[in-house]
Amino acid sequence: MCDKDSGKDGEQVIVELAKRLGFGRSRAATWFYHRFLSREPHPANMPHRDVVLETDNQKILVANPAQSNIGRSIFFHGVWEPEATRFITPRVTAGMTVVDVGAHTGYYTILFARRVGQSGRVLAFEPEQRGLEFLHENLRLNDHRNVTVHPLALSNRAARVTECDKAFFVADDQDTPDSTAEEAAVRVFDDLIPELGIDRLDIVKIDVEGAELHVLEGMGRALAQWHPAILLEIHPRKMEENCGRTAAQLEEFLVSHGYRTEPVSPPSPSGVYTVYCTASEPATPAATREAASCVGA
Predict the structure, then answer these.
(1) Do 62 and 19 have their domain in common?
(2) Nearest Cα to 211, choosing from 184, 191, 192, 193?
(3) CATH number where 174 lies
(4) Rounded Cα gap, residues 166 and 146, in angstroms
(5) What is the pLDDT of residue 242?
(6) In angstroms, rounded to a whole number, what is the distance separating the alpha carbons of residues 89 and 85?
(7) CA torsion angle for 141, 145, 146, 152 (degrees, to 10)?
(8) Based on the structure, what is the number of domains in the chain?
(9) Is the pLDDT of residue 1 over 50?
């Protein structure tokens, strides 16, 4: 065990060395404090490169924590979006089918994959190339074979979109700093149901930087047939700026499809918040048959 005097001697050595290198005493002491004593985020005590960390007893490759909010949070706290993580993980159980829309680097994808097990499946949708690279590596690191990755954006109509249209890209630039402009295919989820062999849908997680209502409008038949729970991150400002839609319109859509919402996390400084949406009442057999016939049409 080190005594206090030896700690002071070590600090003095650091200070003297820093002074010889041209740093002032105050700056050297600040660096020493953050490097060796503090767990508060600071450039002195975090990696400055992409790094493999641990979360949920799993390995996860994150972008440079000095530049990435996700990387920094997991490096210092072992978790990203703690409120949403604590809320959703006990609700995902073996055998479920979970859809991750805006999977980004795969944080939620690997949480879901671990919990649904080999009897379940996870479908991850991510259009941005840099995010896909991280996503595939994180699935490999944890040997998750119950996940299918789809390099697509989801919306209410099929199209192609460039990265400059931020409505269809989940990541902030700092979380995938090496991203480059590219095109991505945009598909309607309901149209993909026969193609992907989806026969049940239990939970949908959506984080799409303002395109939330577009995505949900493209899932209308799936919502009517299976009434999945929805973990929904809402970006009111980006919704208006990128899509010309409002949070009130999103709420109207959910109510019209029989959903009620409960808060998961409070609004961030930028107004972003997360809700959990569940069907007010289960679909009737007649409604389920009608929805199924529409999907198969």
Answers:
(1) no
(2) 184
(3) 3.40.50.150
(4) 29
(5) 87
(6) 6
(7) 70
(8) 2
(9) no
Q: How many CA atoms lie within 13 A of 89 on its CB side?
A: 15
Smallest CA-to-CA distance from 65 within 57, 73, 77 is with: 73
In sequence order, what DSSP letters do the residues of 63-112 get, joined into one string?
S-TTT-HHHHHHHHHS-SSHHHHHHHGGG--TT-EEEEET-TTSHHHHHH
Which residues are within 8 A (CB) of 39 and not within 5 positions of it... i.e. 6 or more apart? 45, 76
SS3 (DSSP) at 229: strand
Residue 78's Cβ-count burial label (10 Å; 0-12, 13-18, 19+) is: middle
- Give the C-alpha separation, 149 to 30, whole Å: 44
Are 159 and 186 contacting, i.e. CB atoms less than 8 angstroms apart? yes
Select from 278, 287, 236 the least CA-distant residue to 87.
278
Same domain? 27 vs 107: no
Q: What is the pLDDT of residue 160?
A: 77
132 and 259 housed in the same domain: yes
CA torsion angle for 144, 150, 152, 157 (degrees, to 10)? -120
Q: In this structure, are 17 and 108 located in the same domain?
A: no
Q: Give 58-114 pLDDT, tens digit per residue.
A: 999 999 998 999 999 999 999 999 999 999 999 999 999 999 999 999 999 999 999
Higher pLDDT, 16 or 83: 83
The residue range of the domain holding 183 is 51-296
pTM of the model: 0.80
Same domain, 254 and 201: yes
**Residues 134 and 100 both lie in one domain:** yes
Same domain membership, residue 40 and residue 167 = no
Residues 6+ apart with CB under 8 A from 73: 79, 80, 81
Question: How far apart are alpha carbons 116 and 202 in whole angstroms?
Answer: 11
